[in-house]
Amino acid sequence: MNNKKKTSRFDDLIDAARSRQLRDKLPNVDEKPTSPTKSTDPDYTRTTIYLPKQLHRQLKAAAVSQERQMSDIVTELIEQWLLTQSD
Amino acid sequence: MIITVAAFKGGVGKSTTALHLATYLQNKADTLLVDGDLNRSALDWSNRGCLPFKVADEAQAVSLAKLYEHIVIDTPAKPDADELKTLAKGCDLLVIPTTPDAIALAATLQMVESLQKLKTNYRILLTLIPPLPNKAGEEARTTLLSAGLPVFQSGIRRLAVFQRAALEGVPVNAVKDSYAQIAWRCYAEAGKEILK
């Protein structure tokens, strides 16, 4: 190896790898505060229900327009219904 | 992440370690294995068969480095002081493979000593651990831990399937052998410890 100036033949490699990591530092910052999802929350369970296609479509459209999750809407409805059952 | 695999002694599974850690990391993100060993054993390995990640020598790697998330650097046996210094300072983790015998352990302790001035993040990986009832692996681990040195919880067992993998030019998890998964798990566990 004819590395007279450089201290070792790995210098350039480390420089290149390091500069790449530094470039990545910034976008990494805003990765952390992601909201927890129900799919990873142990307090939630996933279930399957059958809805008439038309009703599903309406629910979906309403959820999107209100920027709410279908899960939350359905949860709210079921909670209300359960209350009516208790008396 | 930049990981360097280095040891003062040859034949301790340096290239095998670099290659399998690269295999593990490639499952997470694009990984480049730099064959810094002048024997070019990793390049040989990849030329014989096919590896699931990119392999380059240290000169080619300079322009490739920016394309890869993880970089694993295999080094020559007994790297010279300047090389070791560059690598030790430049990497996120230095992995020191060592076999559980007196000669390799002595070389490892010698290496650790020369790293102490550099404030390197390093961890020792026990390799070529003979099967029970031989206790060499456990004894070596105890020795290293009682010396206060960082050691991987996972150790690499001495299994013939690693040689078959080298011969076929693939990582050990691609070999059709009943021990392939056992051998692979050794490195997968070590990889998990690195990313933890």
Automatic annotation (TrEMBL), chain A:
Compositionally biased intervals (Basic and acidic residues): 8-33
Superkingdom per UniProt: Bacteria
Gene Ontology biological process: regulation of DNA-templated transcription
Positions of the UniProt region annotated as Disordered: 1-46
Entries under InterPro entries matching the protein: Arc_rbn_hlx_hlx, Ribbon_hlx_hlx
Stored Gene3D superfamilies: Met repressor-like (1.10.1220.10)
Protein name: CopG family transcriptional regulator
From TrEMBL, chain B:
InterPro entries tied to this protein: CobQ/CobB/MinD/ParA_Nub-bd_dom, DNA_Partitioning_ATPase, P-loop_NTPase
Domain CobQ/CobB/MinD/ParA nucleotide binding: 3-170
Source organism (scientific name): Nostoc piscinale CENA21
Name of the protein: Chromosome partitioning protein ParA
